[in-house]
Amino acid sequence: MTINEIQDQIIEDFSYYDDWMEKYEHIIQLGKALPLIDEQYKTDDHLIRGCQSRVWLHAEIKDGKVQFTADSDAIITKGLVGLMISVLSGQPAKDIAAADIYFIDRIGLKSHLSPTRSNGLLAMLKQMKLYAVAFSATQAS
Amino acid sequence: MSATTKLDIAKIRTDFPILNTQVYGRPVVYFDNGATTQKPVQVLKALEDYYSSYNSNVHRGVHFLSQKATDAQEAARRKVAQFINARHEHEIIFTRGTTESINLVAYSFGKRFLQPGDEIIISAMEHHSNIVPWQLACEDRGAVLKVVPMDSNGDLVLDEYEKLFTEKTRIVALTWVSNSLGTVNPVQKLIDRAHARQVPVLLDAAQAIQHTHVDVQTLDVDFLVFSGHKIYAPTGIGVLYGKENLLNEMPPYQGGGSMIKQVTFAKTTWADLPFKFEAGTPDVSGIIGLGAALDYVNETGLDAIIEAEHELMQYATEQLQTVPGLRIIGHPKERAATLSFLVDGIHPFDLGELLDKQSIAVRTGHHCCQPVMEFFGIPGTVRASFSFYNTKAEVDRLVEGIRKGIAMLQ
Questions:
Q1: For residue B404, what is the nearest residue in chain A, using CA coordinates?
Q2: How far apart are CA A4 and CA B25, in angstroms?
Q3: For A71, which of A64, B79, B235, B287 is 20 to 30 Å away at the CA?
Q4: How far is CA B61 from CA B66, B71, B78, B138, B282, in A?
Q5: Cis geometry, peptide bond prior to residue B274 (ω within 30 degrees of 0)
Q6: Contact B407, B327 (CB under 8 A)
Q7: Measured between CA atoms, how close is A57 to chain B, in angstroms?
Q8: Which of A28, A53, A54 faces B408 most closely, judged by CB atoms?
């Protein structure tokens, strides 16, 4: 599936929840299910500093696609990180670099991507795109 | 204090329109009073009156409205002076808040009194705003910062405090009430011990002014700072109280209008106190709002407020302790209106997020006290901070919200 197809799928999944608590229960379940980052990458080099919750992110190229793994010390952040990964991981670097991430807004969690929100999610998205840009540059050369 | 009449909280709550605000479809439970307090209609009305009937710049105009605004501003200064029992009105300097007040003292006192190698004492439980300005002063003047440690209960270690003094100690800057733990420090003792060595003391009263009686003359404190918005006044207005002789010796913090006696290109002479430290157009509406807020506290009765908050704190402490896995951070001898806690295995950010979605406003994180969090080896806490307008029913909603959050997160 393309990045946008996955985003649309997530939007549809979330449309079944009517209240906040159900939405969060789902996010928490996603957080618990997120494949953990390999311990060797859970270092300061891979740390994205949000103010309150910490996020670790690792990226590598496999078969021409970018694979992301991540972790967070806060479970809700981890769920959101998991959603972001499900959208972007396994996609071609150039698609990630050009991706328009709209699903967060559409599932009513826009505030989580605000620069004034201190959960590290926006910084993580930026970092994912930076990795993708770097990988496409390497692939092009 | 036993003679105080109990407050009718239901009636009090009608003074605070925001308490009826719905968040995610339910009335908000506001337990972030340590960050800022809500404003009673009496304060809102004072702001509206000012802007709709006598808004004007102060001290410069000969006209009627300017005089009226000036009178209102100076009446508010008098109210502040009375509220903290300052000897002189001109010992009250209006600033933007606690942070600016501390920066002012760190800069001006530093410039006048700090030499390379001199020492400043602060404590391990200071808010960043009572750490960083002193670090800047240290950098600027070549002075050294020394830190009073705290124990695992969250109380300052007084014996260690004693040991920090040397002949090079120039000033002590301490918080009265810890914003992250709620610890009430034994300020009279701390001041007396510094004064025994002729060292002046600055007290950060940001978390004390709304919860306790402040008498700067009895305390004999040299500087005392607080923010209006923590005592039901608007944001953007703060107070620096300083002893006249010290303020007179200190150079101005900022230059501009209102703070001068005479300006020539060769030499400018400063205005008298308090105007020497109030460059530019002041926050007239904020000052008037602060005056109205202090009137409100006086009319409600500070003793009654203290009693209501004490009762609420006791109830909240008992109720929170019924939650399995919940641990309150810090067990100081005395605590004011603030409870910081963690639940085993749960990140404070997650719990705060789920409380928010249940319409309960708390603060999570390090509360601008990273050294305190580091001391306890925790990433942050969930902090519930109370005000007299909160109710036991709201505490019940908090406890219920925490239980629900835990059930979802574990």
A1: A21
A2: 32
A3: A64
A4: 5, 12, 21, 41, 14
A5: yes
A6: no
A7: 19
A8: A28
Q: Do B350 and A25 touch (CB under 8 A)?
A: no
Distance CA B313, CA B319 (A): 10
ipTM > 0.90, yes or no: no
Nearest by CB to A74, from B347, B358, B408: name it.
B347
C-alpha B79, offset from chain centre: 17
Q: What is the pLDDT of residue B369?
A: 84
- Where do the domains of chain A lie, and which CATH numbers do they carry? 3-140 (3.90.1010.10)
When CB atoms are compared, the residue of A20, A28, A53 closest to B349 is A53
Residues 6 or more apart whose Cβ sits within 8 Å of residue A75: A28, A31, A32, B346, B347, B350, B409
Residue in chain A closest to B409 (alpha carbons) equals: A28
Beta strands in B49-200 (DSSP E): 92-95, 119-123, 144-148, 169-175
Mode of pairing for the β-strands spanning A54-62 and A47-49: antiparallel
Distance CA(B81)–CA(B329), nearest Å, equals: 35
Tokens at B159, concatenated: 């014996």
Question: Position B356: which residue type?
Answer: D
d(CA A57, CA A42): 8
- Chain B CB within 8 Å of residue A74 CB: yes
- Which 3-state string (H, E, C) describes B153-184? CCCECHHHHHHHCCCCEEEEEEECECCCCCEE
For residue B348, give how far its alpha carbon lies from the nearest alpha carbon of chain A (Å).
Answer: 8
Q: What single letter denotes the amino acid at residue B1? A: M
* Spatial contact of B195 and B396, defined as CB atoms under 8 Å apart: no
Give the model confidence (pLDDT) of B26-62 as tens digits. 999 999 999 999 999 999 999 999 999 999 999 877 8
Chain B residues inside the 8 Å CB shell of A53: 347, 349
- From the list A37, A76, A30, the residue with the least C-alpha distance to A53 is A76
Q: Which residues of B219-256 are buried (b: 16+ CB within 10 A; e: fewer)?
A: bebbbbbbbbbbbbbbbbbbbbbbbeebbeebebbeee
Q: How many CB atoms lie under 10 A from the CB of residue B17?
A: 13
- Whole-model pTM: value is 0.93
Which residues of chain B does A51 touch, with a Cβ-Cβ cutoff of 8 Å?
365
Cβ atoms of A137 and A130 closer than 8 Å: no
Q: Where are the alpha helices (DSSP H) in A35-74?
A: none
Order of strands across the sheet that contains B223-227: B92-95, B238-242, B223-227, B201-204, B169-175, B119-123, B144-148
Active-site residue, selected from the candidate residues A20, A21, A40, A51: A51
Are A94 and A136 spatial neighbours (Cβ–Cβ below 8 Å)? yes
- H or E segment at B398? helix B392-409
A74:B365 CB<8 A:
no
Q: How far apart are CA A88 and CA B317, in angstroms?
A: 45
What would the two tokens of residue B263 be? Answer: 């300006």
Chain B: closest CA distance from residue A118 (Å): 10
Q: Which residues of A59-83 are buried (b: 16+ CB within 10 A; e: fewer)?
A: beeeeeebebbbbbebbbbbbbbbb
